[in-house]
Amino acid sequence: MTDFALNHRFRRYRAQSVIIREARKQGFVRVRVDGELLDLDDVRSLDKYKRHTIEVVVDRVVVRHSDEDGVPYTPERPNPDLPRLADSVETALRLGEGVMVVAPADPGTFDEQRYSERYSCPFDGTILEELEPRSFSFNSPHGACPTCTGLGVRLEIDPARLIPNRDLALREGALQPWARMPMENSWQIKIIEAIAERRGFRTEQPSPSHVVEYT
């Protein structure tokens, strides 16, 4: 006979008060907070500045391996506990968005197990799409690195090269790409002046350190 509980874990981005309220609304009576089993009515205000692991106990199931006479169950004589177990697993996976926890009703009986319908990490919730041949192809956007899009390089702005001389004002050609262009009444200076007015710096003064962020 195996006695265990089926839990579903809420996503961490959800507010803890919302989790408790939803659990009550759905008719559940027990939760496990940071590994401690509690009745919902006993759950007090949780520290909102601390990350908690909150799992709702969907069901406590006792699975017998044989009948009252000690005769083992077989495919021809199916275990009568299995339909309830199947329903509880389905409920836990549905509420847990594809992830569930099987925990011993009596601690120490067996190790806690986490199960997922997806390719996902049960600890931080990272989810991977189903792997396909195109996932490993550098020619396919589907499998490309989201940072470099499969090119192996990434274009970035080097602030030191963008404004090599910080003693110059923007109107004096501090921005290296525009240094040789006439700035007076140009579309470039109009863009810079609009940004300067919005962000609170002057184009006639030497470039402050935050100019690169806005340009």
Written overview of the protein:
The chain is of the alpha+beta class. The protein has two domains: 2-124, 2-Layer Sandwich (Ribulose 1,5 Bisphosphate Carboxylase/Oxygenase), CATH 3.30.190; 159-214, no CATH class. The chain contains five helices and eight strands. It has helices at residues 16-25, 82-95, 159-162, 187-199, 211-214; strands at 2-9, 30-33, 36-39, 54-63, 99-104, 113-116, 119-120, 127-128. The protein has a six-stranded antiparallel β-sheet with strand order 3-2-4-1-5-6. Strand 7 and strand 8 form a beta hairpin. The longest helix is centred in the middle third of the chain and has 14 residues, at 82-95. The chain is elongated.
Number of strands: 8
**Strand portion, in percent?**
15-25%
Name the average pLDDT: 76
CATH fold-level assignment of the largest domain: Ribulose 1,5 Bisphosphate Carboxylase/Oxygenase
Oligomer: single chain
CATH class of the largest domain: Alpha Beta
Q: What general form does the structure show?
A: elongated
CATH architecture of the largest domain: 2-Layer Sandwich
Total discrete domains: 2
Unreliable stretches, pLDDT < 50, 5 or more residues? Answer: none
User: Can you write the helix and strand succession as a string?
Assistant: EHEEEHEEEEHHH
State the major sheet.
6 strands, antiparallel
Gap from first CA to last CA? 69 Å
Layout: helices, strands, pairs:
Layout: E1 2-9, H1 16-25, E2 30-33, E3 36-39, E4 54-63, H2 82-95, E5 99-104, E6 113-116, E7 119-120, E8 127-128, H3 159-162, H4 187-199, H5 211-214
Antiparallel strand pairs: 1-4, 1-5, 2-3, 2-4, 5-6, 7-8
